[in-house]
Amino acid sequence: MTKRFLSLLLCAAALASALPAVAQPKRADLVTRLDTCEAILQDFQSSTKTAIPTDILRRARGIIVVNQFQAGFLLGVKDGYGVVLVRRPNGRWSVPAFLSAGEISLGLQLGGKAINTVMVLMDDNTARLLFNTHMNLGAEAKAVAGIRAAEREAVSKPLPANVNVYVYTNVEGFFAGAAVKTGYFSPNEEANRVLYDTRYRLPEILYSDWIKPPPEVQELMNYVTSIAN
Hints:
Elements: H1 2-18, H2 27-45, H3 54-59, E1 62-69, E2 76-77, E3 79-86, E4 97-101, E5 104-106, E6 114-121, H4 124-128, E7 135-136, H5 137-140, E8 143-145, E9 165-169, E10 180-181, E11 184-187, H6 189-196, H7 202-207, H8 215-228
Parallel strand pairs: 8-9
Antiparallel strand pairs: 1-3, 1-6, 2-5, 3-4, 4-11, 5-10, 6-9, 7-11
Helix pairs in contact: 1-2, 2-8
């Protein structure tokens, strides 16, 4: 799993740096990004040291997996991408949709060239904030560093009430109580158009049945269903 994750991560980073910002994304590159995000989520859940607790995942209304590049000692991330899936009113998980991810800063971090983050959205209103052309989960929702499965029994201090977003990262040194600045997200309509060959926008992609999931997205959808249902 680790080798697959690192291979996909390096491939995605190389592709991202090679393509001009204005270039139309290639479908094969987008599928690689989906595979990378699935690998990130699997990597989180593969160890109790990093795993998101099952009870949080079962209450989740949305999951965002973010792949970011260029971090500093206190983690100043410049650019990257994310995918989001939401739990629909019927309990089923949506197809994944692409987001553009801007600068993210997380407190008490070690440096690194690639930072992988999972954000668990705890209510439908927070998930719908992603429809905005430019939104910040830290400013528009209550985001906190999430307790991991291995910390569940050891952490006696309760998390703040009315939390909208739990934020997890695989960088060592990120603990409950660290400062969280989630940066901004915006729908990547062009990437979604290329992947699904549709003009539907983010609300329709996430909350309607108008798009038949292509085979390339099924593995990620199945994995999210397996850990969050």
